[in-house]
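In this section we walk through a basic example: taking a raw amino acid sequence and producing a predicted 3D structure, encoded as discrete structure tokens. The instruction is simple. Fold the sequence below.
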Amino acid sequence: MLFTSLGLSDPILKAIEETGYIKPTPIQAKAIPLVLEGKDVLAAAQTGTGKTAGFTLPLLERMVQNHKETGTHKGKPKRHVRALILTPTRELAAQILENVEMYAKYLPYKSTVVFGGVNINRQINTLKQGVEILVATPGRLLDLASQKHVDLSRVEVLVLDEADRMLDMGFIHDMKKVVKLIPKKRQTLLFSATFSKEIKALASGFQTNPSLVEVAAQNKTADRIAQLVHPVDKKKKKDLLVKLIKEGNWKQVLVFTRTKHGANKLCEHLEQHGIHSAAIHGNKSQGARTKALAGFKENSIRVLVATDIAARGIDIDMLPHVVNFELPNVPEDYVHRIGRTGRAGREGIALSLVCVDENDYLRGIERLIAQKIPKEVVVGFEVDPSIQAEPINQGGGRGRRGGGQSRNSSSRNSNSRNRSRSRS
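The resulting token sequence is shown next.
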């Protein structure tokens, strides 16, 4: 199947052709026709399978087909928000806007993004000029709506992207508030990396007879990603990472830590060993995060150290290596993390440095993905069998052992902290 057979108009096909893509991914091939038919869609696919284009392309086509000029502003048709894309983090919002602008370059529509952490006045001024496509995080959008700076009463299409993450971050009430501001008669597209009972319950409240699209088994990691565990003592992790990067001559590595403080300390260690790195997390300004991500994409920064929340939206087609410096306490986050590599049909490598404290986390991950991850001890970094497991510091609050916390309880305990980071 080719993009030319999906019923997309010439301006959109021209933009697609310029990206170099010819064939749609499975999620795109299944979702695009359904969206074009005007149906609500509930879609799940692994990270890196093309979900963003899966809703962006048909959304633009629907706007072309339903184009109506209503009202004028200084002699020109007055722009109003026709499509709203809601997403959990700043980075992901910015990434989605890039996709919208890329595919809409030959269309007359204006788009923008609003999120916290940056000057709200510039966003207000842009909205005053009028936009048809708005990408937003929930907190900043509600702030703008409460101040009457954005009118959502004529939205035709609502997209909830990374809906599972929005639920985890405690945005359910914000999402409900946003939905109350838009017309009941609309098309709603809900995209998620995984299906869960919570996601299906969300869909039942926001959608009407949605068409279900799933192109990969639930919580299945991409087959193109080679996964490997290096058992290592906690105090030796930093030096092992330096060894792997230098001896492997890795040029672009995304490294995950559990805490913001841990990300900063790891960056300092890497810099001391001549490895140019940068950290992105909730305490970094939006400008610093944008600069770090740009440097990483351009290969001027070799290692990007990130927390889970800050890493959402990192979309680099040829990212070869992802390293779990620390395993996540929520097993599903492992799937999200390693999905940063092995994208667009390319191979990827996901390594996890696992100390004795994290063995329960590892077992939880292996249960989730229904496979054992191969283990390989690096010479000189053998595990000391006398070291006993200790509770893990989650960056505030009580430490817990690896498997002792369920997804729901961990999400509830971090909701308020995560929401404040995203809204700031």
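Looking at the output, two observations stand out. The two ends are 43 Å apart (CA to CA). The chain is about 40% helix and 15% strand. In the next section we compare this with other chains.
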